[in-house]
Every structure is written in structure tokens, then in C-alpha cells.
Specification:
The chain has about 425 residues and is α/β, with parallel strands linked by helices. It has 15 helices and 15 strands. The structure holds pyridoxal-5'-phosphate. Pyridoxal-5'-phosphate binds next to helix 3 and helix 4.
Amino acid sequence: MADPVPGELPFLPYGRQSVEEEDIAAVAAVLRGDWLTQGPAVTAFERALAARVGAADAVACANGTAALRLAYAALGIGPGDAVVVPSNTFLATASAARHAGAEVAFADVDPDSGLMGVAEAEAAIARARKAGWRVRALAPVHYAGQTAQMTGAAGLAALAQAEGLALVEDACHAIGTVDLSEGCETPVGAGRAEVEAGSLAVFSFHPVKTIAAGEGGAVTGGDPALMARVRRLCNHGMMRVPEPGEDFADPDAALDAEGNTNPWYYEMAEPGFNHRLSDIHAALVLSQLGRLDRLIERRARLMALYAERLAPLAPLVRPPALVPWCRPAWHLCAARIDFDAALDAGGRTRSAVMTALRGLGIGTQVHYIPVHRQPYWRRRYGDLALPGAMTHYAHTLSLPLFPAMADGDVDRVAAALERVLS
Ligand SMILES: *Cc1c(COP(=O)(O)O)cnc(C)c1O
């Protein structure tokens, strides 16, 4: 960010990383050490992340998109298969499935929360099956930091299990979010043991997300065999040491006369990727992970202030719709604004509102243009009717939310919104 002009208020972007001296020291220590890529910082980060989200294992990788790609590949998703993806997401949730060769069955979302529910997923499954696709997985997106409803009879995990589908939770917005259903508290990313076809969660550590690696991502889960496949695919499909219960396919080449593995030996059972995270990036995100609770608390405080300060602007402006089944670690403050009503009352369009806010030093963004509206997908599938996603899109505007914001910045945003909407 540029230094503020004296007398001018600093620009508030819609999201911003939080980097402290301890993070810089952690990265500098890696640069002075022996490993730049895949060294002790990656291992330490994977252990700390698995512990934080209550997963048996975590595989760190290059970014959230790579994490999605690895998850779909490890589940064996390919041509002829389909993945159910809510249309209110970032491009990557769908593109990664397409890169695996699969079709995307776009699902509608609740227009208020932006989340895919069971009814929307069921409609997408039915449409995909009618098209002759083999539906293999649900990829719910935990939009803005709130989870889709996962547990209980009305949850997506039960639906996945009933339909024989795997689960890939796109938790790029939701590190630190906790599921509250059934009297238990389960961190997002722990994996859903009841889903027999496989259950993985993916995270992104892009700078706008809650903790940053620069570029970084991870896959977490509870099934050791599935996670071993993710780990291998992340590193060229190479196996240097068999997992427990596995053997080398070519023991004559692998083992010496005493039955020890030859020191140079590796074997490839399927082609993989180089989606590795570097130690430089891992040191940054590991250091940030240590502050996650503080960062989440600060975001929660700012969201509570937004709820208060936006209340007088109702019904024109409403804070994000809360769902009862999780304790969110807020990634976005996706306010709901009735732009049509504002325009009818002689106000501005959303575009003009964003420009006017920018003029007042306030950055905003729209999350998201429904992915099924992208030209690529329209060419492939025609015009789908997903009215919930379109309504959500028409009303959403992400307001500044990042830990270094002062309480007074929320007042500033609310006052500016009131001014530019009227
Ligand atoms: C950020 C994001 C991704 C992609 O993560 P990258 O690290 O940018 O590749 C995927 N899905 C969602 C919902 C995201 O917000």
C-alpha cells in the first residue's frame, strides 16, 4: 500500500494479508538454511495444519487450485465423471475438475448465504445423471467462511454417503471454521469418516485468504491411503518408500541382496504433478498459522461491528446471512445490498457505487460472478437456470475485512456506504 497523503485517510482494500516481524524472521531463517523447497518447514507446516484442523494428515502444495487438482486426481475422477460444484465460487473449483477430464454439474445456492444445500446438490445430481454422466463427488464451497451444511440428516455428508459420492470440501475461505452440528465441534478439514467414497478438504494460502504463504495450498483428510495418493501425486507420482501394507511393484529393481531398498530407487505407479510447496512459502504460512486464533478473533470482532453499524441501513444494506450450523472464521464480509431499490430511489448502480467508494478510499469486490455464466461453461452446457446464484450475485458486495483494520474503519465504511447509496 502506498503511504497515505497527509490529511487523507489510508486506502482500505477488501482484503489484505497480515505480515509481522516474526513471519519475516521465519522466512529469513529458511533462506539462511539448507533447504529452499520441501524441507523441514514443509513437514512442520503439514503437521501443524493437520493438528489445527483435526485431520490425520495434511499435504502442503503450491496453491488452492493445485490442492483441488490433487484431490480430484487422488479420488480417481476422470473423463465420463461429474463433480457437483456450486456456481457461487471462484473459477478454480470447477476448472480443476475439468482439468481432470470430468464434467461439472453446477448447483444452485441459497440466495442469502451463497451456500449450496442438499436440495440444490440433489437437483444438480439429477441433471448430471440425465445427461449420462457418472456423478462421483460433491465439492461444496464454504463461502466467506461459513460452511455449507455438512453434518446431520440434512447435511451434504449424508447425501454423499447415500449416493456413493466422494466429498471435496473447498475450504479455501474457511481455515479455522468449526462445524457445530450434533452437539460436537469439528474443525473444517478433519474429514468426514462416514463418507466411504473418500473425503478431502482443500485450503488456499493466497494473500487475500485468512493466512498467507504468498502462493500456497493444502489438502487434508483422514484416510491414510487416500492421503498417501495425494502426497505422491503432488511429487511426480514418485514412491521412495512403500506405505504400510504396500510393496514395490518391481522388488528385483527396488531391493538389494539383503532385502534393503536400493538408496537411489524410486518407482512411479501413475503420472503425477509437481505441485510442491517450497520451504520459503511454508515458513511464512507456518508462522501465520501460529497466530490464526488471534486473526480469526479480530475478524469476528470486525464482523460484529459491521452487523451493528450496517443495521441502520436496513433493508437496503444487510450484513451477511448467518447460518446456525457453524462458528465461522470470516474470510469475506459479503454484505447484501438491494442495488435495484437503491437505483429506483434515485441512487447509483453497483458499478457506480464501487467507483464512488473507491474515490472515498474504500476497496470492494464482488464474490462471485456465478461460474456457470462464464463463456467457456455456457459454450459447453448452454444457459443453465440457477436463480439462487444469480440473485446472490446481484446483491453481493464484499466490504473491507482484514485484521489490521481499526474499529473506526468500520464506521468509515458504513458512513461511506450510506452516502454513496443515497
Ligand atoms: C482462492 C480460492 C481458490 C484457489 O486458490 P488459489 O490458492 O488462488 O489457487 C479456490 N477456491 C476458492 C473458493 C477460493 O477462494
